[in-house]
Amino acid sequence: MSDPLLQVRGLKVHFPVRTGGVFVGQHTPLKAVDGVSFDLNQGETLGVVGESGCGKSTLGRAVLQLIGATDGVVSWLGTDLTSLNKKELIAARENLQIVFQDPLASLDPRMTAGDIIAEPLRNYRPSLTKGDRRKMAEEMMERVGLLPRMINRYPHEFSGGQCQRIGIARAMILRPKLVICDEPVSALDVSIQAQVVNLLMDLQRDFGLALLFISHDLAIVRHISHRVLVLYLGKVMELADKSALYATPRHPYTQALLSAVPIPDPMKERNKDRILLTGDLPSPLSPPSGCVFRTRCPRATSICAETVPGLESAGEGHEVACHHWRD
Amino acid sequence: MTSVLAIDNLSVSFATPDGDVEAVTDVSLSVEAGECLGLVGESGSGKSQTFMAAMGLLAENGTANGHISLDGLDLLSADEKKLNTVRGERIAMIFQDPMTSLTPHMKIGRQLSEVLIEHQGVDKETGRRRALEMLDRVHIPEAERRLDMYPHELSGGLRQRVMIAIALMCEPEVIIADEPTTALDVTVQAQILDLLMEVKANLGAAIVLITHDLGVVAGLADRVAVMYAGRIVEQGSVADTFASPVHPYTQGLLDCTPSLDVETEALETISGQPPNLQSLPTGCSFHPRCPHVFDRCQTERPLLERTPSGQSKACFYNGAEAG
Asked: Inter-chain contact B218–A265, Cβ cutoff 8 Å?
């Protein structure tokens, strides 16, 4: 196999947050992403799952260097993106695009669909004429399932699903190698979600695209991903092939997450075993000592409060950060 | 058994600068004591507005026509004063977003006891004691301390428990839960669904569960009604509806919902876009997206009718092409 497109090693994103009183306040680092490592190969989809505040969106933005990394390496085709200056970074981003969660808010309301989709061309292919750009935008609209005759319409004239198609067309127009999808279907109705997921999978097949698919929806992640990374309070809990992660999850958090997803089948939903976690996500400003999951973990023992569990191999390509995964 | 809440031929329309928009059309529904009715539909299908009308909470430009009866009391013709004696006491609502539905500058304890002070005229001390009992009942840890906290000091899951506690204060006959877990993370959602199941088992109230999540309905509801473009298109028991849906829209919704228990190659989709309420298609509103459409669907509107299996559907298609 060829080298991975993207190699992330020990990535940390810490935000300084002022805590305490007005006069005696101090800065405490909020560890949004805390030592995350993974590879992403060409044509592959890595799903990133976790609950709100687990750092999955920050991770996506840090890969693009939209948010600077505090520490660690984001190696894109062998070049460390964290070491590039602004100009070099902009050049590198030609191959790295992003699709955001809120389809309407992420499109400029004063630009037409055609201008939005063609904007990356204006920046990266300055030699193209206006007519060329328009033609390419029309082709891309057709490709993502929009009618090219709607090219002069503004975002508010489109439905949520159509706006997300515009966002995808904008991301695809430069034929990037990697698209980061940050909750791309969360704001859409179920009947539209399926359309957009199928479109992303089609584009991946046709263009050999790699996807970093960030979502809280475990069923959709299972559908679209080849491998899945589970995050909790900025740390990797488990990383495995899709089939292994969903069939034999090793981390108690992954097991609880999977058991919590309601199944649209009354017989199965009412008879399944659920692992109910107690409590809520701890504040990321004062994460628990040792294993960050231990305060909600049904299997926690004294060692979990003392030592941070490292990632251990639980099979080929299957890594888990838990002291008790063998139990 | 008789129904506690019965909605009969309800229509809700909103006056807009572009003309009237009908959000709910000819909806008839009922719930019995101890029963949970799931109301499913996508955004704009009218599922929330149906029950906002029941609560007298429509926006200023909204008008409701029809009948909504709470044990014989017509809620639509009741005046504000009458409604205020009923809302919170006999019919209560749990909203989607617990942050914006709680009063931000009022302590949790007061928000709970207020319901009793208002409706049952209890004194402050009794109100506080009953508030504490209720927080315990919805399993809020350190309940005593929470009474003196403000909503922003609680997590999303705890806030939703407080909302449920407020709704339960007067032991209402009807509880309307409008997307009660949509804003929550999946592990917290599981906790809240568990609590709602407990409420259902212990309280004997009628529960209306409004949601877009078929999985949530599958776990909690006894009966389910599916709405599309302001109308009910299918109604039946949960077991029947999930095992053998009779309306193509319900079938489509079930097919395009990815599930953890089955793996599929490509997700089934419902083609096209949700309808624009201002220019609904002629005939059946679902016909432009329906895989079984034939001529009659484009000109004539199907009525909600009982099928031999005891389910109800508003659809001309009966299994054979060209109906």
From this structure: yes
